[in-house]
Amino acid sequence: GSFGVVWEAQELLAGAAQVGKSKGPTVALKCSKPTNKQMLEACMLEAEVLRSLAAALPSKADCLKRVPQYLAHCVVGDVLPGAAASAMTSREVRSEVFVAMTKLEGRPLDQWLYGVDENRLKTVDVSQVLKGPFPGAAFGTRTLAGACRVVVQLLSQMSSVFMPLSGIAYHRDISAHNFLIRDGADDVQFALLDFGLAVRASSWHQDFQSRNISGDPRYFTPAAWMLIVYGHKYLQAHPDSSFLGQYKSRLDHFSFGLLCLEVLFGLWHVPDAEAAAKLATPGEAPKDAIEPAQALGKVRNAWHGVWQDAMRFFQMFHAKGFAATREALARSQAVSKYADKLRTLCTELRGAAELCKGSEGGAAVAAVLEVL
Question: How many folded domains does the chain comprise?
Fold first, then answer.
């Protein structure tokens, strides 16, 4: 990662006579080498967040498997004496931060879904990300009901983590590469990793004005893009105050919702054109089947519009850098168009949910669409 390296390690129990004997459980050891005061504080905050979250989660609860459990941390070295915080340079920090936590099992969610990692997605054709194929991956392998079941498990499992976390910190990097998945025969299990970009929830409503925007650009809120392109004064003066409110208090909610939609529409194997046309032809199917199918098609199209923009922003950001991306977005009005596409998606989700409620077997689908 940007801060350091995570190693797999094994705890040696007290009284071990030789290395390799009396071993304890396998753990993850994150070793970070911050180069300035802000990075050092971020590394220390990650340990603090993990420790606070462990204390907030119910003991022996299922949610303990959803995030790494804090074990210990230490700092080797220190900031050089006499260095003023306002005048810090990269040469004035000589520290290494070690955080020990439980090691979680699973496969990165993006690799499971697409069969490729985040770096490959930086260059893959956007149309392939929307429609596939990704041979050997989970993409396009579920019915709509099956895709909904996976999303329900993702939502229900992680809600037990996000509820206590919201009073402690905002993760700020909710993305497919920071989730692990274990895909079993009967169910799937999810876990959330990497709290290295977390910020304190108690002070974020003020800190957002001065803190760098971090995370995966695919999951940025519209407000984050407004901050990048126009600055915090523009966002604070925006006539739609919900953008600012979302960024100040629902930062992780937005990213997680987008992730759930990515999983839903990535997994869903849409019937081929001939079958879809037959379903939508009057006389070939009952009205209560045609209308939900058409509505779901509109939702999928709206999602493709949103995710296409998000992927293009993501690829531009990594190919051209921060400054060039900001200039390009400012010239094109792409941020406003992206926000409009999100509004359309929300409208189509609500409409499809209402129609699915009254269709045969549609209640479960409607419930997922309403939440998202």
Answer: 2
Please give the residue range of the domain that contains residue 76.
4-102
Q: How confident is the model at residue 36 (pLDDT cuts 50, 70, 90)?
A: confident
Residues 6 or more apart in contact with residue 75 via CB below 8 angstroms: 44, 95, 96, 97, 98
Hey, which bits of the chain come out as E strands? 4-12, 23-32, 70-79, 93-102, 107-108, 169-170, 179-183, 188-192, 199-200
Please tell me whether residues 211 and 334 are part of one structural domain: yes
What SS3 class is residue 74? strand
**Are both 66 and 129 inside the same structural domain?**
no
Q: Dump pLDDT digits (tens) for 325-362.
A: 999 999 999 999 999 999 999 999 999 999 888 777 78
> Among residues of the chain, what percentage have pLDDT more than 70?
87
Residue 16 neighbours by CB under 8 Å, 6+ apart: 22, 23
Q: Is the peptide bond before 217 cis (omega within 30 degrees of 0)?
A: no
Q: Are residues 16 and 118 in the same domain?
A: no
Pair type for strands 93-102 and 23-32: antiparallel
Residues 15 and 137 in one domain: no
Residues 296 and 233 in one domain: yes
pTM score of the predicted model: 0.89
3-class secondary-structure state, position 257: helix
- Are 235 and 330 found together in one domain? yes
pLDDT band at 20 (very low <50, low <70, confident <90, very high): low
